[in-house]
């Protein structure tokens, strides 16, 4: 209930207080006028203080700036903003200002300066003078003027504006010496004049001749006729006097400008006669008065007014001599027919149907006797299917000569050009093979599907070997390979060494084998067969006769072709092999190879020294055993389209290469067959190689 009571008290109306106005009494007139006079004095005193204080504040806060103008005449200077001149100085408050200067004969200059806090400051304005007005003349006029390396014009040049300062002028005019002058241009629109006299670049020469009337030429250009005074430009010159029926007179001159000379009277010599001399046949030796002059056709210079003895001679022909006399400047042509001297040559030619040519001209077939001029002749004998022969013969008059030529078949000639056996610089023996000379230059590679052990990559395909080639009789030994790579190691297996000098080099890649071939070619001055880039084989040159690996076709031909048949195994066509036919996985190799040829013994657990077994029918050792062999070809499966491949070399590059032949680790019938093909790229302990090369053809 007490809350309701207090609310009732707050709602009671508030009674306003009463306000009583005070009485107003106005001031009298004197009292109100006194403050007004005092206020007026205050405003006057304040204004005077302000007028005095502002300049004093500017003076106290301003800085002194001296403006110096570099010019040869008085200059007018102006400064932007509030700047009070004070003699040669200006009073300014710190800040940015534009300063301008002008003077007669100078380019006006306006620049921006910064006035700092220092009490006294200075700025210098350098006015650039206006160009000077230069008049240039030369004697003679027409000279080219070059100012500081730039063409200025041709004299006379009137009032040219040129920048003030030092300059270099070059004056050039035809037939005058160049002149260089230094010029200091005053500028400021002031006129200047320069005159230059050019000195002649010639000397005058007095020229006379006997007889007179000769044409005068200086360096080939006509200058008049004798007698004459000739102006000749300085330097090395040649003066020539010419007159019909007289020999030209020439003299080299070293002309110095201004050094005039008199050449006196020059006596001209009557011109020589010209004899154009030919002979039949041409090429005869010519002498005049006993001195050799050359060979016909020939042009001779004949001194006029006397006789000269002209003689012509040529091997196989009689000598011709006559006397000739020509008048001055006379020309004459003569042809002398030389009489041939002959000798008899008896040719014995076999076969009788062969054609005989003398100097390219067919004279008949077979043996005959010919009377030929007593000079060297080229003799050629040819017959289709035979290698042509040529030689040189020189008949002798009165003496019968005999020449016997027997042609060889092309095959005989090819063999004759190449040794049947070579021993190279690392003691390798290579035999020459000519597949086309045998009955099986064309044969079939691969094996029939019916052959036991035949693999899918042994596709039958025909091959034709046309090129003769050399093939190493043995595999490359460790000792031979170490001449190329001294640190090579073939390794060992289960305590059995593969590393002896006379064992075949193994544990090497196809790249290493091919690189050995290139090294051997370079060592013997032969063109490398394989292309190399930074030690990597990247292809081959099929026309090279350098060392290489045997092609797969060459290896197959050398191993398989025999008396018109293809061998299945190195020893024949029956399996198993007879005792010690080749080095295979025999009874002693079981703990190394794991599989063996039961009952077979060859006497070696791993590889044998090369040549330990009998050679095959081609005289080649270990072609079907001991170690398998890298051959040249990139590995591929042959096409069965029946097309004959001639001297196949395979692709230029590839990932894997063909391996042919069995090794000491092989024992199965499929591996021992001569048609067996393997492939790889890296080294193996049972893969080596032998070298080959094409014969020179």
TrEMBL record:
What is an example of a Pfam family matching this protein? PEGA
Recorded hits in Gene3D superfamilies, A to Z, give:
Carboxypeptidase-like, regulatory domain (2.60.40.1120), paralog of FGE (formylglycine-generating enzyme) (3.90.1580.10)
Q: What GO terms are given for molecular function?
A: formylglycine-generating oxidase activity
Sequence segments annotated as region (Disordered): 1-20
Boundaries of each PEGA domain copy? 133-200, 202-258, 273-339, 351-410
Which SUPFAM superfamilies does this chain map to?
C-type lectin-like (SSF56436)
Domain Sulfatase-modifying factor enzyme-like per the UniProt entry, residue ranges: 441-693
Protein name, entry field: PEGA domain-containing protein
Q: Which organism is it from?
A: Halioglobus japonicus
């Amino acid at each position: 209930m007490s809350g309701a009571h207090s609310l009732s008290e707050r709602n009671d109306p508030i009674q306003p207080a009463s306000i009583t106005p005070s009485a107003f009494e106005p001031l009298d007139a004197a009292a109100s006028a006194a403050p007004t006079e005092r206020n007026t004095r205050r405003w006057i005193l304040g204004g005077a203080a302000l007028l005095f204080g502002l300049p004093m504040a500017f003076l106290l806060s301003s800085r002194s700036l001296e403006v110096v103008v570099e010019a040869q005449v008085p200059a007018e200077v102006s400064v932007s903003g509030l700047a009070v001149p004070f003699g040669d100085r200006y009073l300014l408050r710190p800040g940015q200002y534009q300063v301008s200067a002008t003077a007669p004969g100078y380019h006006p200059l306006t620049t921006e300066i910064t006035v700092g806090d220092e009490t006294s400051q200075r700025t210098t304005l350098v006015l650039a003078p206006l160009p000077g007005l230069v008049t240039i003349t030369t004697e003679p006029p027409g000279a080219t003027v070059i100012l500081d390396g730039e063409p200025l014009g041709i004299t006379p040049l009137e009032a040219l504006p040129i920048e003030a300062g030092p300059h270099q002028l070059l004056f050039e005019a035809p037939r005058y010496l160049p002149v260089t002058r230094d010029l200091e241009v005053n500028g400021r629109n002031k006129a200047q004049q320069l005159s230059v006299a050019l000195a002649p670049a010639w000397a005058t020469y007095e020229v006379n001749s006997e007889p007179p009337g000769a044409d005068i030429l200086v360096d080939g250009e006509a200058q008049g006729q004798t007698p004459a005074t000739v102006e000749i430009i300085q330097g090395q010159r040649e003066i020539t006097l010419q007159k019909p029926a007289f020999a030209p007179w020439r003299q080299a001159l070293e002309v110095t400008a201004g050094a005039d000379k008199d050449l006196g009277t020059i006596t001209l010599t009557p011109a020589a006669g010209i004899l154009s001399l030919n002979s039949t046949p041409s090429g005869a030796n010519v002498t005049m008065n006993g001195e050799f002059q050359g060979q016909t056709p020939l042009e001779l210079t004949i001194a006029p007014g006397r006789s000269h003895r002209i003689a012509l001679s040529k091997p196989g022909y009689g000598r011709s001599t006559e006397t000739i006399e020509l008048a001055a400047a006379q020309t004459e042509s003569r042809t002398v027919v030389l009489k041939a001297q002959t000798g008899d040559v008896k040719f014995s030619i076999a076969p009788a149907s062969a054609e005989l040519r003398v100097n390219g001209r067919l004279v008949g077939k077979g043996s005959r006797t010919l009377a030929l001029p007593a000079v060297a002749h080229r003799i050629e004998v040819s017959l289709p299917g035979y290698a042509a022969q040529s030689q040189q013969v020189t008949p002798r008059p009165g003496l019968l000569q005999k020449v016997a030529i027997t042609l060889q078949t092309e095959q005989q000639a090819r063999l004759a050009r190449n040794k049947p056996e070579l021993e190279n610089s690392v003691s390798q023996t290579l035999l020459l093979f000519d597949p086309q000379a045998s009955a099986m230059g064309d044969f079939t590679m691969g094996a029939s599907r019916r052959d036991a052990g035949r693999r899918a990559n042994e596709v039958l395909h025909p091959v034709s070997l046309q090129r003769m080639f050399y093939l190493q009789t043995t595999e490359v030994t460790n000792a031979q390979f170490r001449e190329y790579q001294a640190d090579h190691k073939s390794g060992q297996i289960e305590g059995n060494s593969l590393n002896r000098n006379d064992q075949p080099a193994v544990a090497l890649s196809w790249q290493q084998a091919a690189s050995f071939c290139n090294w051997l070619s370079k060592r013997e001055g032969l063109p490398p067969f394989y292309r190399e880039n930074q030690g990597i084989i990247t292809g081959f040159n099929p026309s090279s006769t350098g060392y290489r690996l045997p092609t797969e076709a060459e290896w197959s031909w050398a191993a398989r072709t025999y008396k018109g048949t293809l061998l299945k195994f190195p020893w024949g066509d029956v399996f198993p092999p007879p005792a010690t036919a080749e080095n295979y996985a025999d009874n002693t190799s079981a703990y190394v190879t794991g599989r063996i040829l039961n009952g077979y013994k060859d006497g070696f657990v791993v590889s044998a020294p090369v040549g330990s077994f009998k050679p095959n029918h081609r005289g080649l050792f270990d072609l079907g055993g001991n170690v398998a062999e890298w051959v040249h070809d990139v590995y591929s499966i042959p096409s069965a389209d029946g097309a004959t491949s001639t001297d196949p070399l395979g692709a230029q590059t590839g990932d894997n290469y063909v391996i042919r032949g069995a090794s000491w680790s092989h024992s199965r019938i499929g591996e021992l067959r001569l048609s067996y093909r393997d492939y790889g790229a890296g080294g193996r302990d049972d893969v080596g190689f032998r070298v080959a090369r094409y014969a020179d053809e």
